[in-house]
Amino acid sequence: MAEVVQAGLWGLVAGSALLLGAAVGYGLRVPQKVVATVMAFGAGVLLSAVSFELVGEAYEQGGLAPAAIGTLSGAVAYTAGNIWLARRGARHRKRSGHHPGRAQPSEQQQSGSGLAMAFGALLDGVPESAVIGVSLLDGGAVSLVTVAAVFISNVPEGLSSSAGMKQAGRGKAYVFGVWGAIAAASTLSAVLGYTVVGGFSPAVIAAVTAVAAGAILAMVADTMIPEAFEDAHLAIGLVTVSGFLVSFALSHT
């Protein structure tokens, strides 16, 4: 199978987890502590993947400078985009809606917030999928650890966010339309990660990988961890470490 097709298929697999999580979050009333638990696990998985698969790989390919500059650039770009979207109603896009003070706004409360949340979901999902395509450049085989990490973390993201969308009064067509579009964008992002970045030098590929790592790390800190620890029970730290170790184990098998 052509590698570009593989990139798209793996991007679609990872992105489909958002739809799976959305179906659970929209169709069932999941207890907040369960949402916090799965979000903490997903955060741990992504933290490990960023550390060992992305930043570590960028360092090995290009050295410290491209890895560090790329990671900081990704974090700055994500934060700037997130600030812009937050001012338009997407600040709590991954919140499940259990706390009124930190719930997603309805369209009546803030006009344009629905579109802002859709763009916010795109901002969160594109860097994760792009690195799946980039990982194919290293020997022609996708990094299954990266795919697994993105898939595992996407389930709680879709779950929590869709529950919050429903709480804000948004209908089924909007919720599944958003996540279906993000799954499609994940496919395209993985393809572009492979085709566009593949023509660059190893140092540039390292920097691009690091940029995605910085964006993902900023996203985890800004949107996933706050929801995970909103109603933290005593074992939430252990759950996060468990997710970290699962991803770490996958990357060393």
Content of β-strand:
under 5%
Radius of gyration (CA) equals 17 Å
The main pleated sheet reads as: none
Low-confidence runs of at least 5 consecutive residues: none
SSE pattern, N- to C-terminal? HHHHHHHH
Assembly category: single chain
Shape: globular
Q: How many strands?
A: 0
- Kindly state the percentage of residues in helix: over 70%
- From the N-terminal CA to the C-terminal CA, the straight-line distance is 25 Å
Count of helix runs: 8
Mean pLDDT: 80
Structural class: mainly alpha
Protein name: ZIP family zinc transporter
Transmembrane segments: 6-27, 34-52, 64-85, 173-194, 200-220, 232-250
Keywords: Membrane, Transmembrane, Transmembrane helix
Summarize the structure.
The protein is an all-alpha fold and 253 residues long.
Provide the descriptors you would attach to this structure in a database record.
mainly alpha, 253 residues
What is the topological layout?
Blueprint: H1 3-27, H2 32-62, H3 64-90, H4 113-135, H5 144-167, H6 172-195, H7 202-228, H8 236-251
Protein name: ZIP family zinc transporter
Keywords: Membrane, Transmembrane, Transmembrane helix
Q: Could you please describe the fold and organization of this structure?
A:
The chain is an all-alpha fold. It contains eight helices and no strands. It has helices at residues 3-27, 32-62, 64-90, 113-135, 144-167, 172-195, 202-228, 236-251. Helix 2 (32-62) runs parallel beside helix 8 (236-251). The radius of gyration is 17 Å and the shape is globular.
